[in-house]
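Figure caption, in words: inputs first, then the predicted bound structure.
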Amino acid sequence: MINQFTKSVKTILVFIAVLCLCVSTYAKEDIKRERPSKLFSPSKIPLLEDTGRDAWQKPEETLNALNIKKGQTVADIGAGSGYLTVKLSERVGATGTIYAADIQQEMLDYISKRLVEKGIKNVSLVLGTMDDPNLPPNSLDLAILLSTYHEIAQPVDFVKKIKLALKPQGKLAILEFSDESPIGPPIQVRLPEDLVINELKQAGFTLSQRHTFILPYQYFLVFSPLN
Ligand SMILES: C[S@@+](CC[C@H](N)C(=O)[O-])C[C@H]1O[C@@H](n2cnc3c(N)ncnc32)[C@H](O)[C@@H]1O
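Bound structure (S-adenosylmethionine present):
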């Protein structure tokens, strides 16, 4: 009798789980994605610099996962206010180089003031274009696109240019807000993780790591170039 009851409860629970999965898959397919999203306005820099950001962005854990070493060369592409640039600069130390790249001069001006205030000397500012990050070939140990990929108009071509800038053993990290995150850009401009992975494959990369336990609101993918 008890066995029969347990069996029925289990069946009902499995049915509910399958139903929820179907509803959420259907709801996701129903979202009309807008791409690329508008450029993040420099007037919203305070959002990037919000004091509560570290609690969910977890920059130190993120950079630990990327295993950045002193003396390395790293590009922060779509650097914005330089939130990550400054932390990267400390990681690579005086013998390393950070390229802080953005396509909005106002963002680079903001970073420039910040670097002067903090006496940081190992960061080079790079003004790119929507189609080209303008980074030196074969120079990077790592490139990071933090909450930037969804703003890029022709991502496959853009990422192919990043590939040229990477050293053969270099890596590319992409972090974007998941559909499930309670914070972040509107759902229409978020990108499903699988779509990003597919585009990176088209650009000649392979997924080498997927960090699922570090960030609560973003997916965190690391790619290696295929030679
Ligand atoms: C949402 S902000 C994120 C800034 C920063 N990564 C952060 O998380 O604090 C996106 C930034 O990417 C820049 N961006 C958009 N498209 C770009 C491109 N093709 N090349 C370089 N930067 C780009 C925008 O100008 C903006 O500063």
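Residues 39-40, 48, 77-81, 83-84, 101-104, 107, 128, 130, 133, 146-148, 151-152, 158 surround S-adenosylmethionine (CB under 6 Å).
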